[in-house]
Amino acid sequence: MKLTHTTTTHTRRIFNVLRKWLPAGALALSGALTGTLAHAASASDDAALVKRGEYLARAADCIACHTSNKAKPYAGGVPFDLPFGTIYSTNITPDKTYGIGNLSDADFIGLVREGKSKDGKRLYPAMPYTSYTQLTDDDILAIRAYLRTIAPVAKAAPANTLGFPFNQRWAMVFWNLFNFDSGRFQPDPAKSAEWNRGAYLVGALAHCQECHTPRNFMQGLSSQSLAGAQLGNWTAYNITPDRVAGIGGWTDGELIAYLRDGAAPGKANAAGPMAEVVENSTRFLSDQDLRAMATYLRTVPAQNNGMSATSLPRYGWGSPVQSVTALRNRPLTVLGGGAAADGRTLFNANCASCHGWQGTGVGGKDAGAYPSLLHNTSVGASNADNLTMVVLHGVSRQTNNGHMSMPAFAGELSNSEVATLVNYVTTQFGNPSATITADKVAKMR
């Protein structure tokens, strides 16, 4: 808005000068011209504000949580399955009945930053107001300006299905008492502008800790910030600078590539919730902002998750198959009265064509490459959860370089076959202590 004010001030000064020298007719014309210039400046400012708001909304990944139907963005309805029931995200289109069209700017700021709706109801912390509380007024109102340009959708979100006492919103007063500290981001004058920008992005706008920090028994964020957490059947890994448990062994370039493309060869490939973050959010961020995030993550307190300094990091595991004979079919084994293939047979039939019979991948470091199973965080992790979810549900990740995909095998392989395949992959190419049972696979479906 400062640009509009400044431009209008300049045009008024010009008008005052012209008024001393021009006849009345010309003066009227100059006044009309002044108004036109001011209107154009205001329109330009509005467009810039909306564009900035779109960038900030992408950084905050608003679309991921508020879009269940891509044809109707921001109309809500995304389910959040919690231990005590299901919460559905709200409609944040400008619809005046079911959306946020009737909210004032103050109402919207309170909603985003304090977790309070217009009628005073408390929001559930599926809305990350615990992180958004750090956002500035300007950034929140820029996001609001962008959301005003979204097509309104006249549809209510499904009703939450929470049992007593979790369906009592007033009880959130007590939850907030123990788990929420309201307050704006305060730059550290002893740090660089890049570090402060990274701290704001990681801790407030991109709210990384909401997924990567373990939760306490009340489902509030614990003190082990960014040490890794379980998201349903997925694991959000440790992203502190510990060299074994975290990302201390990653270069800045690898961190930036992973956030931008969802792939850092020799380290990791994004799948599941993180693939969605890349697709909807981080691939749109500027190189400067991605570098700022990497700079800040280098400095957060390291969390070693109880791992020894001599342990291998998640990406440190793996050696290729040395001989093709090791992949040849073995005789079928009878288990429970039926014939079952062993791990190498399943790998050869379902995985080797894309990941290579040695497990080294196909395509090297190209944007569309099939990733190596060696030095891969999902294969070298201490549990096989993420690898199992990838086998069951595949990978879909849109990047700036194209669409990356892997087919889902849930409809092709039984629970026992998935467990056998996953255990073969972790034993042959990754961390052999990471195994899974057919019963757990059944639950993860």
Strand order of the largest sheet: 1-2-3
Largest sheet: 3 strands, antiparallel
What order do the SSEs take from the amino end to the carboxyl end, as H and E?
HHHEEHHHEHHHEEHEEHHEEHHHHEEHH
- Give the percentage of residues in beta strands: 5-15%
Shape-level CATH architecture of the domain at 314-444: Orthogonal Bundle
Strand-pairing-aware structural class: mainly alpha
CATH class membership of the domain at 314-444: Mainly Alpha
* Strand elements, count: 11
| Ends apart, CA distance between termini | 51 Å
| Morphology | globular
Name of the CATH homologous superfamily of the domain at 314-444:
Cytochrome c-like domain
Q: How does this structure look, described?
A:
This protein is mostly helical and 445 residues long. Among the domains are: 48 residues; 124 residues, no CATH class; 131 residues, Orthogonal Bundle (Cytochrome Bc1 Complex, Chain D, domain 2), CATH 1.10.760.10. Helix content is 42%, strand content 8%. The strands form 5 sheets. The chain has a 3-stranded antiparallel beta sheet with strand order 1-2-3, with no helix packed on it. Strands 4-5 form a two-stranded antiparallel sheet. Helix 4 packs across helix 6. The N terminus is likely disordered. This is Mono/diheme cytochrome c family protein.
What's this entry about, in short?
With 445 residues, the protein is mainly α. Helix content is 42%, strand content 8%.
Features:
about 450 residues; mainly alpha; Cytochrome Bc1 Complex, Chain D, domain 2; 3-stranded antiparallel beta sheet; two-stranded antiparallel sheet; 18 helices; globular
